[in-house]
Amino acid sequence: FFNLSTIIDKPFFGVIDFIVSLIELISEFAKILSLTLRLFGNMFAGGLLLTIIGSLTVFFVPGLFVGLEIAIGAIQAYVFSALALTFMSQATVSHHGDGH
User: Fold this and answer.
1) Residues near 24 by Cβ (< 8 Å), separated by ≥ 6?
2) Nearest to 38 by CA among 99, 80, 81
């Protein structure tokens, strides 16, 4: 992320590049934290829903919610993997025009 050679060559643009690189570094950690908290929140909410519904109703109703949780879990797994794939592909893309 850090391009320190431009600070010497072009001081104004070098400082701007350094600030942008700090923002990019923060955004990389924010992506990881965001995905982690999203997955935790969804799993925690589903478990809490099953616990509350299971303690308040009879056997049939929690069974419906277990099926709903399985469907929602599959959707969340798809979304989580799509977001992770997108972030990984952005991290490995070359931004140089030399075509390597």
Assistant:
1) 1
2) 80
